[in-house]
Amino acid sequence: MSDPLVARMREFGTTIFAEMSALAVRTGSINLGQGFPDTDGPAAMLKHAMAAIRDGFNQYPPGPGVPELRQAVSEHRKDHYGLDYDPDGEVLVTVGATEAVAATILALCESGDEVIAFEPYYDSYAASVTLAGAVLRPVTLRPVEGRFTFDPAELRAAVGPRTRAILVNSPHNPTGTVFTRAELEEIVLLCQERDLIAITDEVYEHLTFDGVEHIPLATLPGMRDRTVMISSAGKTFSVTGWKTGWICAPPEFVRAVQTVKQFLTFTAAAPWQLAASYGLRHELGWVSSLRADLESKRDRLMAGLSAAGFEVYRPAGTYFVQTDIRPLGFTDGLALTRELPSLAGVVAIPTQVFYARPERGRHFVRFAFCKKDEVIDEAVSRLARLGGTGGHPG
Prior knowledge:
- By secondary structure, the chain is an alpha/beta fold.
- The chain contains 13 helices and 15 strands.
- The protein has a 7-stranded mixed sheet, with helices on both faces. The protein has a 4-stranded antiparallel sheet with strand order 11-12-15-14. Strands 1-13 form a two-stranded parallel sheet.
- The two termini are 35 Å apart.
């Protein structure tokens, strides 16, 4: 029998995260690939989830999300960013940010529409655009003075007559860049000139370092009414398995996304929603401690990677450190990461899989630092072996 998968999805196959995590399990390697913490979130929030289960919140919650979480999200937007969102009509709870991105693109993009995204990009973006029958137009982020950024002229050149939306991920996975106000203003200008919708993936909004500020695009003049703002409890509270996210947007966008979302998952699990509402109201102090801890872990991993011979880019946010493997004599990140368990007993992610044009990221490899200190220390100790491999494979 021929491949039953629809042709437009055949290029995607198994995600690189599934492949590399399975490789880590199979080889007993340290997994610095997939971005999930190896410690739990705030204890009181976890107890609220268990209490919700015991107290009978185990049936379908309302499609838009439980009122407690929608209200907590609304309060959070107001308190942190000065943005007013009506919890009844401008907030929608989703099964993680991945569903939020997919449902938003499916709801707002017709077949043949174009969506701009900054490459390297999280792999679900391209898949969601393809599912919608739309076309992804990449704009490449490149290292400039130690951080990844874009060329405004390239961004402008990516816009065509069928451009419908721009996907903005900041803090950015996988480069660790946090877009500056000046960079965001370039995006704003383009959105307003060409009447584009902005879809903003802000799941790492609270995980920025070195005093760098995360600025939501929706806070810039004229952008609140053309932006779908996406966040998640998973990264903020170290509960990635809960798959609880939300969008904040004008009511017409929320209605559109909910129309699609109801036929994808209908609603999200009630216990996690109730616990996340508690987290937003009572555990942001815990998040501040998490941010400080992650900054220390970032520095720990960066020092080890530099000592092992990688060129290391300092991330201003997220869970990830981006490295250039060429100083070690390697040139192909995918080949290297597939051999890394046997070379060093460590798993990482090849950044090239996050590019529409993989050759532009062939020499980059991403490492996650959302791990215990002793795990990071053991990983960098193992990676120190790479200096003697002679630059193979790649």
